[in-house]
Amino acid sequence: MSQLSLTCAGERLLGSELAQGLGYANTKSFFEDSNQPPEKIMETALAECQQKGGIEELLTNALRGPAWWAYIVLRYGPDLGDKRETFLKKATEDPKTAYYTLRFVSDLGNQRSALIAATMKDEGWASSALKHLGTPIADAAINLTAIPNPPVENGWGYNTYFVNQSGKELWVSYNTGQAMSSGSITGPQQLNIDQNVGFGRGGAQITEMRAWTSKPDNWSTNGFFALWSLPQGANGLKSWGFRFNENGLIETEEWYSGGMPDKYPPSNGH
User: What is the pLDDT of residue 230?
Assistant: First the structure.
């Protein structure tokens, strides 16, 4: 089994997603309990695995699921042996999965070029690949100029998405550190009138968001147009969307990485 510290909440979230998809209820609950040590999680996962047909059945079911499950198994699962190439091929079915596989899985077998090509099929993930994977893409002789207009999303990973329908310019900042602290602030970022734009947080959680109608001097500047704090019990590692109208913040939405809710307008460059 791959070494897994599970000290990062993002790693626990990935494990929880896979456990839920495979029907491993006990393992899912252990992943979501930050007080459970890695050894206890793996003990529970192996016990449920044996109850449901063993490792072979687990791997078969993982391949029947979405490509994202293949990435989780490749990064954190057991030694796949001659099945590794099959899981790598599965990872090429989705641009996001291909990107994360390129970035975080060390042995790509014969699928490196196919994974790069899969990432290029989506402008958002292609833009992230250009930023973080420039050298391997160039080595694979991919035509980078084939991406005409990289989207205005900045960064990668779980998203912080803003929809400005307030009729005025806004400046927004958000906190990825402890609530009420100021050591991990992103921003202020200017939002033009009717602009929709996302800022990737990688694996960091969001705890607070603040908005102003004029550029603030710092996180503590008064005169807020809107304030938001992560609700108790909510998951700050998810993607969060914020929609403003003339009265302030009128809606928040949370979702897992890999696609916004349909009701949110796509990003634009206004």
Answer: 93
